[in-house]
Specification:
6 helices, Immunoglobulin-like, MyBP-C_THB, 6-stranded mixed beta sheet, immunoglobulin domain, 100 strands, 10 domains, mainly beta, 6-stranded antiparallel beta sheet
C-alpha cells in the first residue's frame, strides 16, 4: 500500500525487520538491490552517555546509507556523527551526550539505483539512577546458603566384594579389604586363589581368553567407561551387565541411553552416560551365567553436577531476564555462554554467585529480540543450557502505548497505566474459512478480540517482595468494571469490586523473581463473545490437502472506505498466478489455488479506515505426503549373515506425523524390488538376514503418513561379505596447542569397510621416537579431541586409526610435529615499508622485520592490497611468505593501489603497516636504449629462400614507438614486425634478392627521445651453371676456353669462375684456372696427341654451381717430321699496332685483411709495357704490391687489404706506337663472418697456383 506501480517489493530480507523496495522490473546481471548484513539494534542507555548504532550493508553497486530519526532532523554535527569503518565495513551513527529528548525511533536506509532497504532501531535514555540495581540487590537477599545432601552409604554384598578382589590389582587389595572390613589378609589370598581356579574352569565353557581388563574410569564429560578384550567361543553368547547384583538393560552404540556397549572386534567397551550419585556401585559382566569381570564406581569419583538445571525463560522486549541454577557442590570458576560464546560482566550482563558457591545467576538487562538464544552455564565437568524467548513489544496489542514501566509492564505512563482495547466478534468456521457474519474486532495471541476503548489503568502494578511459601497480593485499579483479569495466558480470579482488582499469589517460589503481565479484556457495549468459539479460531488452523484450493473470507463492518491488507509471516501478499485477493465494501477474501506445503504459515488481515485499525490472525496448514527420509542411508553392519542400515527421519513430515517406514531391497543386476518389512516411526534402523554371501544389494526407504508414501531414499551398493577393516584416514590436523594440551581434528576415512565407523584410536609419539602410545583406552566417537598428559617444550606427532565392527583399521600417516607450549605473541609492525620497483602489472615492496621488543618473532608475512575506488582489502598471497620482499602481480595498468604488510606467526597476525600514499602500477621513466649483444650484427649474408630474422632487445619506459625502415623507406608487405616486453623482432619468411639493403630500427617515446640502429643485409644464392663451352686453338700447344656467363652474374658482383681440365689418360680433374672474372681462359702446356675434357664452374660466397663441360675430348695434333716446301716469297704483314685494352679493370669491394686481385687484358705490338698506379703513384717499385703480365693478361695483387689501400687504381700500357689507360676504384669493408676468412684462404691458395 502506498507504493507506486514502479516499485516492486521484495518478498523477504534475510534479516528480520528489514524491508526492501525494488525500483526496476529487471535487475541487470551482477547487480542487486541493497540489503542489510547486520542491522542496528535497539539501545537503552543512561543519560549523559554516548549511543552508537552500527550497520553493515551490501548491494551492487554499493549503496548509500542514510540515517534519520522520527521526531526531528539530525542537523547538529557535534551531536550526531556519521562515519564509515573501512576495516569492519560498518556504517556508524554516534549520538553524543544523551538526554531524555534523544529517546526516539531511528531509521537507517541503504539506497542504490535498483532499490532501497530500510530498518529501524529504538533508543531509550534512562534519566537518573535506574531501579535495576535495587532489583538485583533484592534478588541477592533471596539467595540462601545450601549444602548438598549427604550421599547415603550403600550396603555391598560380600559376594560382590570377592568378585572385585578377583579382578583387582594386587596393589588395591589392601584398600578394598579396609573399605569392606576384611581383616584376614592371608585367608583372603587363599580364598582368591581357589576362586580364580574355579572361575577359569567355568569360563572355559564359553570363552577362549579374557585379557586387557580396564577398571572403571570417569572422564571430563561426566561419563564412566570400562572395557575388556574377550574371545568368545560362540559369538551368539549373551552378555549381561549387573549393578549391585541387579540386572541392567543396556543399548548398543547409542550415546543417548544410560548404559551403552560398543564392540570393536574382540574389544568390549561399556559406558555409563550422565553420571549421577546413584550410579555408584559394583558393576559385573557375565557371559551366560559365568562371572567375567567386576569393577566398582565409587561415589567420590563421580563429578558433582547440577541440583537444579537452568530452565527456559520468557521475557518481554526491554525487560530483564534472569537465569538461575544450583549445584551439588561449590563452583567459583563457572563460565556463562551465549550461543557458545563466553559472557563477561558488563552493562548488559550481571553475573552473581552465592557466597557458598552453589547458586549461580545471570541477569540480562534491557533484553532485545537479538538476545534470544541458548544460554549455558559451564562448570568444566558438565554444563546446563536453557532458551531465552523475548516477546516483541508490538505483540502486546492490548496497550495503546509501547512504553515499559519499571516493573516490566507495558503502558503509556511512568506508573504502568495505559489505555486498553476490547470488542466482540462473531465468527463462523466452515470448510477452512472464516464465516460470513463478520469480524468486528482484533484477535490477539490468546484468541480474544480487541478494540479501542476509553478504559485505562488508574493505578498499575507495582513491585512486591514476598517470602517463600507465604501468600502475597498484586493489585491495580481500572477505570471500568466490565473487566476480566489474566496473569500470562491463564485466567486467575474473578473481579473483586468495580474498579479495584487483586491477584492472590499462593505460595511464592524462590527460584527467581517473576515479572507479571496483566492483560485485561474489556467488553464495551455488547454481549461477551463465545470463548469456545474464539479458542477454536486460534487453536484449530485451516487444514487443506496439498493440491486443493484454500479460501478465507472475512466479513466486516465500519465506516467506508475500508482498506484491507493480507499478510503471511509478516510479508504482504499480492495477486499472482495462484494467490487472488478479493476486496468489497463488507468483506475481504483470500483464495489460494493448488496449495502446497510452502503455503503454510500465519496469515493476518489488516482492516483500516479513518476511525481505526483492526487485525485478525489465523493459521493455514497444508498437509501432504512426507518428504523422503534424510540420507544417505548408512550401513551400520554388513556381514555374510545380515545387513543393518540406518537413516534419518524426513525433514518435513507433510503436516501429519510419520506412521512407519517401508524398507525395500533390490539385488544388483535385477530390476525387481522386494519389500523386506516395516519399522515404526520411532525406529530408523532395520536389519535383514535375507542376503546371500558376496552378493550386492541396494536398499530404499519410504516414509508413510496418513496422506501416503514419500519418495524413496535409495542407498549405494552394499555387499554381504565378511567384515572389512576401514582404510586409513588423512593425517590429523592441529586446532590449537598450549603447554598443557593439544587439540586435534581429523576427517573420516574414504573407505569405511562394510560397516559404519564406531570410533577412532588416536596415538601419539615424541618426535624422533618409534613408539606409539594410545591417548585413550576406548575409541573416540568424535572427530576432535584434546590431548593432555604432555611435557612442555617437547614435539609430538599423532596418527589416527578408524574402528568399525571388524576392528581397528590401518593407521593414518603421522601428522606434522607440534610443540606442547603456549601460543606465541603476535609479531609487531614491520618497519621501513617502501616500493622498490613498479611496472604495468606489478609493484615490488621491501620492508624490514618487526622489532623483537614489540612482539613475537615473525614466521612469515601477508601482503594485502585494495584499489583506490574500493574499501575492501584482498590478500596477495595465500601462504605467508618468508622473505622481506614481495612482488604484487596481476595489477591493472596505471591503476592506483593501496598496499599494506602484516607479520604473522603462530600467535596470529600482527598490526598492518600501509604505505603512506597510493601507488600507480606503472614502470619508472627510462629513455629508449638498445641492449646490444653478440646476436646484433652490422652485416648479414642470407641465402635466398631462407628466413631473415633479427632480434632487437631494448629497454624503455613507457613502451616506445618502434619504427622499422629499409633503405629509408617503409618495410615491404612481406616483412613481419612484432614488439613485446622489451624485444622487437623483424621476420621475413622467405628472403629474395630484392630484400638486400640497409635496415634501420628507430625507438621513439612520447617525449621525442630517439634511438636507432642500422645493419646491412645481402641476399645471395648458389650461382647457376655457366653456358656452353667453346674451344679455340690459336697458339700451338695452347687452347682458349670460352663460355657463356652464368645468369647469376647479372645480380652477383662477387661471382668468379674456375676452369678445370681432365686428361683422358688419367681420368682426374685438375684446376687450371681460378678467380677468373672474365668468360674465357687460355690453357697452355698441353701434350699433343692426347684428348682433354674441360669444365667450368661459377663460384661465390654461398657455394659452387653445377659444372658446364665439353662433351667431346679436345686432341692436340702431334708435330710430324719436318719437310720443306718451297714457297713463293711474300711480303710480311705489318703487325704493328698501338696498345688497347681488351678487358677493362673492374671496381672491387674487398674485406679488410683479405687479398684483392685486379686483372685486365691488353693487346698491342710491339709488346706494350705495363705500369700500375694508385692515386697517381707508381707501384712498380713498391714491394707491397705484386703484378704479373702473362700474354697480355695483367694482374695486380694487393695482399692483406687495409683502409689505406682504398682509392683509384690505374694501369697504363705503352709501346712505340702509343699508350692506353684503364682505371678502377677499390673499396674496403670490415670482416663480418668466418666465411670471408675461408674464402680468403681459398683464393690465396689458388693464386699461388696460378
Amino acid at each position: 500500500m502506498g507504493q507506486t506501480d514502479a516499485v516492486k517489493p521484495r518478498k523477504k530480507s534475510a534479516i528480520p525487520g528489514v524491508t526492501i523496495k525494488q525500483f526496476v522490473e529487471v535487475i541487470p546481471k551482477g547487480c542487486s538491490t541493497p540489503d542489510f548484513e547486520r542491522k542496528p539494534i535497539t539501545l537503552t542507555l543512561q543519560e549523559g552517555k554516548n549511543a552508537m548504532f552500527r550497520a553493515v550493508v551490501k548491494g551492487q553497486p554499493p549503496p548509500k546509507v542514510i540515517w534519520k530519526r522520527s521526531k526531528e532532523e539530525m542537523n547538529n554535527p557535534d551531536k550526531y556523527q556519521m562515519s564509515f569503518n573501512g576495516i569492519t565495513n560498518e556504517f556508524i551513527l554516534q549520538i553524543n551526550k544523551l538526554t531524555a529528548e534523544d529517546t526516539d525511533l531511528y531509521h537507517c536506509s541503504a539506497v542504490n539505483e535498483y532499490g532501497e532497504a530500510a530498518c529501524t532501531a529504538g533508543l531509550k535514555v534512562i534519566q537518573g539512577r535506574t531501579d535495576l540495581k535495587k532489583e538485583l540487590q533484592d534478588f541477592r537477599k533471596m539467595l540462601r546458603k545450601r549444602t548438598p545432601l549427604p550421599a547415603q552409604k550403600k550396603e555391598v554384598d560380600m559376594e560382590q566384594v570377592w568378585q572385585l578382589l578377583l579382578n583387582a590389582d594386587r596393589k588395591d587389595y589392601e584398600k578394598i579389604c579396609l573399605k569392606h572390613g576384611i581383616v584376614d589378609f592371608r585367608g583372603m589370598l587363599r580364598k582368591l586363589q581357589q576362586m580364580k581356579k574355579d572361575r577359569e574352569d567355568k569360563q572355559q565353557q564359553y570363552i577362549y581368553s579374557v585379557t586387557n581388563l580396564k577398571h572403571i574410569k570417569v572422564n571430563k564429560e561426566g561419563n564412566a567407561t570400562f572395557h575388556l578384550e574377550m574371545d568368545l567361543k560362540n559369538p551368539e553368547s549373551r552378555i549381561y551387565l549387573y549393578k549391585d547384583g541387579q540386572l541392567i538393560n543396556y543399548g548398543f552404540n547409542d550415546d543417548k541411553v544410560k548404559h551403552c556397549l560398543r564392540q570393536a572386534g574382540k574389544k568390549y567397551n561399556f559406558t555409563i552416560n550422565h553420571l549421577q550419585l546413584e550410579d555408584a556401585g559394583v558393576y559385573q559382566i557375565k557371559v551366560e551365567d559365568v562371572d567375567v569381570f567386576s569393577t566398582e564406581l565409587e561415589t567420590d569419583s563421580i563429578p558433582v553436577g547440577f541440583r537444579h538445571l537452568l530452565s527456559e525463560v520468557h521475557c518481554h522486549e526491554q525487560g530483564n531476564a534472569i537465569f538461575e541454577c544450583s549445584l551439588y557442590s561449590p563452583c567459583y570458576d563457572a563460565v556463562w555462554l551465549y550461543r557458545k560464546h563466553p559472557i563477561e560482566e558488563s552493562d548488559k550482563y550481571k553475573i552473581s554467585i552465592s557466597p557458598d558457591g552453589l547458586t549461580h545467576q545471570l541477569v540480562i538487562k534491557n533484553t532485545q529480540l537479538t538476545d534470544e538464544g541458548t544460554y549455558t552455564l559451564d562448570i568444566r565437568i558438565c554444563s546446563s543450557s536453557a532458551w531465552l524467548e523475548v516477546e516483541r513489544l508490538g505483540n502486546q496489542k492490548h496497550l495503546k502505548s509501547t512504553g515499559t514501566g519499571k516493573d516490566g509492564q507495558y503502558g503509556s505512563n511512568q506508573d504502568g497505566s495505559g489505555e486498553l482495547y476490547g470488542s466482540s466478534m462473531d465468527v463462523d468456521w466452515r470448510h477452512g474459512s472464516l464465516g460470513q457474519d463478520g469480524l468486528t474486532g482484533r484477535v490477539g495471541k490468546d484468541g480474544r478480540m480487541e478494540k479501542k476503548s476509553h478504559c485505562h489503568f488508574d493505578k498499575g502494578l507495582s513491585d512486591v517482595s514476598a517470602q517463600k511459601g507465604k501468600p502475597d497480593v498484586l493489585s491495580c485499579s481500572l477505570s471500568n468494571d466490565q473487566l476480566t483479569v489474566f496473569l500470562g495466558h491463564q485466567r486467575l480470579i474473578s473481579l473483586a469490586g468495580y474498579n479495584f482488582h487483586a491477584i492472590l499469589w499462593q505460595g511464592v517460589s524462590s527460584f527467581c523473581p517473576t515479572f507479571l503481565w496483566l492483560r485485561v479484556r474489556v467488553l464495551c457495549g455488547g454481549a461477551p463473545v463465545s470463548t469456545a468459539l474464539l479458542e477454536k479460531l486460534m487453536k484449530e488452523p485451516v487444514i487443506v490437502k496439498a493440491g486443493q484450493n484454500a479460501m478465507v473470507k472475512i466479513p466486516f463492518e465500519g465506516r467506508k472506505p475500508v482498506r484491507a491488507t493480507w499478510l503471511r509471516d509478516g510479508d504482504e501478499l499480492l495477486n499472482d498466478a495462484r494467490i487472488h485477493i478479493d476486496k468489497a465494501d463488507n468483506f475481504t477474501r483470500l483464495s489460494i489455488s493448488s496449495t502446497n506445503r510452502k503455503d503454510c504459515g500465519d496469515y493476518k488481515v489488516k482492516l483500516k479506515n479513518d476511525s481505526g485499525t483492526l487485525e485478525a490472525s489465523l493459521k493455514l496448514e497444508v498437509i501432504d505426503k512426507p518428504q523422503k527420509p534424510i540420507g544417505p542411508i548408512e550401513v551400520v553392519d554388513s556381514s555374510t549373515t545380515g545387513i543393518t542400515i540406518q537413516w534419518k527421519p524426513p525433514k518435513d513430515d507433510g503436516g501429519t506425523p510419520v506412521q512407519n517406514y517401508i524398507i525395500e531391497r533390490q539385488q544388483v543386476g535385477r530390476k525387481t524390488w522386494v519389500t523386506l518389512g516395516e519399522t515404526s516411526r520411532n525406529n530408523s534402523t532395520f536389519t535383514t538376514n535375507k542376503v546371500g554371501q558376496d552378493k550386492s544389494y541396494r536398499f530404499r526407504v519410504r516414509a508413510v503418513n496418513a496422506e501416503g508414501k514419500s519418495k524413496a531414499l535409495e542407498s549405494d551398493e552394499v555387499m554381504a561379505a565378511t567384515k572389512a577393516f576401514p582404510g586409513p584416514p588423512a593425517p590429523p590436523q592441529f586446532v590449537s596447542a598450549n603447554k598443557e594440551s593439544i587439540t586435534l581434528s581429523w576427517a573420516a576415512p574414504p573407505k569405511t569397510g562394510n560397516s559404519r565407523i564406531l570410533g577412532y584410536i588416536v596415538e601419539k609419539r615424541k618426535k624422533g621416537s618409534n613408539i606409539w602410545t594410545p591417548i585413550t583406552d576406548l575409541p573416540i566417537t568424535d572427530r576432535k579431541w584434546m590431548v593432555t598428559d604432555l611435557k612442555e617444550g617437547l614435539q609430538y606427532e599423532f596418527r589416527v586409526a578408524a574402528v568399525n565392527a571388524a576392528g581397528a583399521g590401518e593407521a593414518s600417516a603421522p601428522s606434522d610435529a607440534v610443540f606442547a607450549r603456549d601460543p606465541m605473541k603476535p609479531p609487531g609492525r614491520v618497519r621501513d615499508l617502501k616500493v622498490t620497483n613498479t611496472d604495468y602489472t606489478s609493484i615490488t615492496l621491501f620492508w624490514m622485520k618487526p622489532d623483537s621488543k614489540e612482539g613475537g618473532s615473525a614466521k612469515g608475512y601477508k601482503v594485502e592490497k585494495r584499489s583506490s575506488d574500493s574499501l575492501k582489502w584482498t590478500h596477495c598471497n595465500t601462504v605467508p611468505i618468508g622473505l622481506t620482499t614481495c612482488t604484487v602481480k596481476g595489477l591493472q595498468a596505471r591503476e592506483m593501489y593501496f598496499l599494506r604488510v602484516r607479520a604473522i606467526n603462530e600467535g596470529g597476525l600482527g598490526e598492518a603497516v600501509a604505505l603512506d600514499t597510493c601507488i600507480q602500477a606503472a614502470p619508472p621513466i627510462v629513455s629508449p636504449k638498445f641492449l646490444r649483444d653478440d646476436t646484433m650484427k652490422n652485416f648479414m649474408i642470407i641465402k635466398a629462400g631462407s628466413c631473415i630474422r633479427m632480434h632487437m632487445p631494448f629497454e624503455a619506459s613507457p613502451t616506445p614507438e618502434v619504427i622499422w625502415l629499409k633503405d629509408g623507406l617503409p618495410l615491404p608487405s612481406r616483412a613481419i614486425v612484432s614488439t613485446r616486453d622489451g624485444l622487437s623482432q623483424l621476420l621475413i619468411p622467405s628472403a629474395e634478392f630484392s630484400d638486400s639493403g640497409l635496415y634501420t630500427i628507430i625507438l621513439q617515446n612520447h617525449w621525442g627521445k630517439k634511438e636507432s640502429f642500422s645493419f646491412q643485409v645481402q641476399v645471395a644464392d648458389i650461382p647457376q651453371s655457366p653456358g656452353p663451352i667453346l674451344l679455340q686453338e690459336k697458339v700451338l700447344n695452347t687452347v682458349t676456353v670460352i663460355w657463356e656467363p652464368s645468369p647469376t652474374e647479372k645480380w652477383e658482383s662477387n661471382l668468379y669462375y674456375v676452369v678445370m681440365k681432365c686428361d683422358s689418360n688419367k681420368g682426374s680433374w685438375q684446376v687450371v684456372g681460378d678467380l677468373i672474372y672474365t668468360n674465357k681462359f687460355t690453357i697452355t702446356k698441353l701434350i699433343p696427341g692426347r684428348g682433354y675434357y674441360f669444365r667450368v664452374v661459377a663460384k661465390n660466397y654461398m657455394g659452387t654451381s653445377d659444372p658446364s663441360e665439353t662433351a667431346q675430348p679436345w686432341i692436340m695434333q702431334k708435330e710430324k717430321d719436318e719437310f720443306k716446301v718451297r714457297l713463293p716469297k711474300y711480303r710480311r704483314v705489318n703487325q704493328n699496332m698501338p696498345p688497347r685494352f681488351l678487358v677493362q679493370l673492374k671496381p672491387h669491394v674487398v674485406t679488410t685483411a683479405y687479398d684483392c686481385h685486379m686483372s685486365c687484358a691488353v693487346s698491342g705490338y710491339p709488346k706494350p709495357k705495363i705500369t700500375w698506379y694508385k692515386d697517381g703513384r707508381n707501384l712498380s717499385e713498391d714491394p707491397t704490391f705484386f703484378s704479373t703480365n702473362d700474354f697480355g693478361v695483367c694482374c695486380l695483387v694487393i695482399p692483406g687489404v687495409t683502409k689505406r689501400d682504398e682509392g683509384e687504381y690505374k694501369v697504363e700500357a705503352t709501346n712505340e706506337l702509343g699508350h692506353a689507360v684503364s682505371k678502377a676504384i677499390v673499396a674496403c669493408i670490415e670482416p663480418i663472418t668466418s666465411g670471408w676468412a675461408r674464402a680468403y684462404l681459398f683464393r690465396k691458395r689458388h693464386l699461388v697456383l696460378i
